[in-house]
Amino acid sequence: MSSINVYKDILKERLNSVELYYDLSEKMPKEALKLLEPIANIEKAVEELDNNRIQVTYTLKSKNPVEIQKFQSGNVERIYNVTSYSYIMKAKENTGSVTEDSAQSDITFRNTAYYSYYTSNNFRVLKLTKGSTKITRFVETKLRNLQLSAVCSGTAEETAVYNEKNSTTVASPKVGTTYSLNTGFKYHYVTTAALIQYKAQVTYSHGNSSYTPNSYITLGTIG
Known about the structure:
Blueprint: E1 2-6, H1 10-18, H2 30-36, E2 40-48, E3 53-62, E4 67-71, E5 76-90, E6 107-120, E7 123-138, E8 141-156, E9 160-170, E10 178-182, E11 189-206, E12 209-211, E13 214-218
Antiparallel strand pairs: 1-4, 2-3, 3-5, 4-5, 5-6, 6-7, 7-10, 7-11, 8-9, 8-11, 11-12, 11-13
């Protein structure tokens, strides 16, 4: 037997509220981050795609669980929401470094992943349960082949090595539509000895060039 307590998805509700006042599809305003800081741990990453494009990603990990399940074994499983916004935009020219430009993004991903974790024998183990992706902005041409994928690979349940994968592809994705992937994964993985990732990948054209950016959420040791 076990007991389950279900709570509000505070991060989801706060993001929905923030998006009523700020257009997060264009860029991530500092004012929006201030509203999100009390309920989420926020990480920022900048990746150079080529000489012309960079990808700026904000990852928000909810501080509050959406569900807690207590087992007779004494294990307590907590389920959390982690959401990321990835902006593909033009890099500044003649700066000598990769930074965000004041221009708006070519394409913006909003990814959401749910994961559960608990502590067992002093190890933190984690399972990626589901993910979803919405393309919230797109100003280029020939948007195609949105691929959603999830992987958990490494030491599972502290005893064995497993490799679980699942994916789905949408040939002609639409802006503003949410596409979901239920992982179907069976095992929890030791967070310090596993790759645990949800990823969205899509192809689009800009002039004579073609881009296939990856927007992903990678989960490691939970603080």
